[in-house]
Amino acid sequence: MLLVNIAGLLLIGFIIWWFWLYRPATAITVAPGQVIEIRVKDGIYEPSLIEAVAGKGISLKFLREDESACAGQVLFPELGVQKELPLGKPVVIRLVPESPGTFTFQCQMGMYRGELHVKS
Ligand SMILES: [Cu+2]
User: Fold this and answer.
1) What is the pLDDT of residues 21-78, one digit of tens each?
2) N or C terminus: which one in the chain shows less Cβ crowding within 10 Å?
3) How many domains does the chain have?
4) Is residue 20 part of a domain?
5) Is residue 101 part of a domain?
């Protein structure tokens, strides 16, 4: 019985780590005019850390491979962007980040999380 509880706690800990704490460290720098493809799969955006330059337009092509409803939208709350992501159909989002800063992008519930770092 105790063993089962410990296994349950470990599982919960793993889920919390996976969905809320895990951050792959690889940053992708977007050159102006370049399209970056972001896969939406298994609870993470790949890549999940995008670097861009203020005032330069960027194109992010989201490809949803996760059929759970959780992955059905991508939001950039600080930038006022919200898009539906149909399963298996790429959606290109064009952004012109005007000012430097860190902007999050996420699914509607915040399990999928990524960051857009905008440099001056
Ligand atoms: Cu979600």
Assistant:
1) 666 557 888 887 789 999 999 999 999 999 999 999 999 999 999 999 999 999 999 9
2) N
3) 1
4) no
5) yes
What is the mean pLDDT of the segment spanning 103-110?
Answer: 95
CA of 36 to the centre of ligand 1 (A): 21
In a domain, 115, yes or no: yes
pTM: 0.80
Is residue 19 situated within a structural domain? Answer: no
Q: Supply the range of the domain harboring residue 82.
A: 25-119
62 Cα–ligand 1 center, Å: 15
| Distance from C-alpha of 85 to C-alpha of 93, rounded to nearest angstrom | 11
| 82 CA to centre of ligand 1 in angstroms | 13
> Rounded mean pLDDT of the chain?
90
44-46 vs 113-119, strand pairing mode: unpaired
CATH number, domain with residue 91: 2.60.40.420
Task: For ligand 1, an ion, list residues with CB under 5 A.
Answer: 70, 107, 109, 111
Q: 38 by DSSP, 3-state: which?
A: strand
